[in-house]
Design goal:
- By secondary structure, this protein is mainly alpha-helical.
- It has two domains: 100 residues, no CATH class; 124 residues, no CATH class.
- The radius of gyration is 19 Å and the shape is globular.
- It starts with a helix and ends in a 5-residue tail after the last helix.
- Its main location: membrane.
- This is Prepilin leader peptidase/N-methyltransferase.
- It is found in: Cell inner membrane; Cell membrane.
Length: 254
């Protein structure tokens, strides 16, 4: 497939998945239905008409307001849709540049969209539910199995090591500091990292995650001049970035 066509197709799909991600990231923490329930205006509770569901363009056409009650529609929706589109385009260009298969391009996009949803939910709610992390593990193993059984074994080991390693870190932190240092979903997310990049990629995921986390803390210090030692940080967001970059560009130093 020509790179431009691939980017256009994947970008369009990304906008659609981005719209779904934006809706799920709101509904899931509220324990609302994420599959069957129709999208509604949060102001007047009226179901959205088909043309009001067109990603990005409907928000622009409505000038960011509900067509009925004029309630302002949050910018998070078009921004998440754009992020989904960017993941699709990035996946297409990466696959085209490396001469990889359409299957691998699709797998990369699926990984990116899963990580986007995980990062949004954790960033906004400090929560990594099993309904997001377990499918990440499953899809990673399926992709590895489709490649080869040897790769699948490496990635299965990666999933086990990822979960066990981060669970042990969390347990030791709690034993020493007498408080939780990691959320209960972080080991499952790191297991997902191992399922996608194999055990050999796990150190790189952690290095990227730490680099992103330290950059955020540095930015907070610049703005606020101080950061509390008990301040919560969404480690799942940092891990998601690490998984994505390690998948695309390989383990650091290898």
């Amino acid at each position: 497939m020509h790179p431009v066509i691939a980017a256009a197709v994947m970008g369009g799909l990304g906008l659609i998945f981005g719209s779904f991600i934006a809706a799920v990231s709101v509904r899931l923490p509220r324990d609302e239905d994420i599959v069957v329930a129709r999208s509604r205006c949060r102001g007047c509770d009226q179901p959205l008409r088909p043309w009001e569901l067109v990603p990005l363009f409907s928000w622009l056409a409505l000038q960011g307001r509900c067509a009925r009650c004029q309630t302002r529609i949050s910018r998070r929706y078009p921004l998440i849709e754009l992020a989904g589109g960017a993941v699709g385009v990035w996946s297409a260009l990466w696959a085209s540049g490396g001469g990889t298969s359409v299957f691998l391009m699709a797998a990369t996009a699926v990984l990116g969209w899963q990580l986007l949803l995980i990062a949004i939910v954790d960033g906004e709610n400090f929560w990594l539910p099993d309904i997001l992390t377990l499918p990440l593990i499953a899809t990673g193993l399926v992709v590895a199995i489709c490649a080869s059984w040897d790769l699948a074994l490496s990635h299965l080991i990666g999933g086990v090591v990822g979960f066990g390693g981060l669970w042990l870190v969390g347990w030791l932190y709690k034993a020493i500091r007498k408080r939780d240092g990691l959320g209960g979903g972080d080991p499952f997310l790191f297991a997902g990292a191992g399922a996608w990049v194999g055990w050999v990629g796990l150190p790189s995921v952690l290095l990227w995650a730490c680099a992103v986390g330290l950059s955020l803390v540095f930015g907070m210090l610049v703005v606020r001049r101080t950061v509390s030692g008990t301040e919560k940080l969404p480690f799942g967001v940092f891990l998601a970035v690490g998984i994505w970059l390690t998948w695309l560009y390989g383990p650091l130093g290898l």
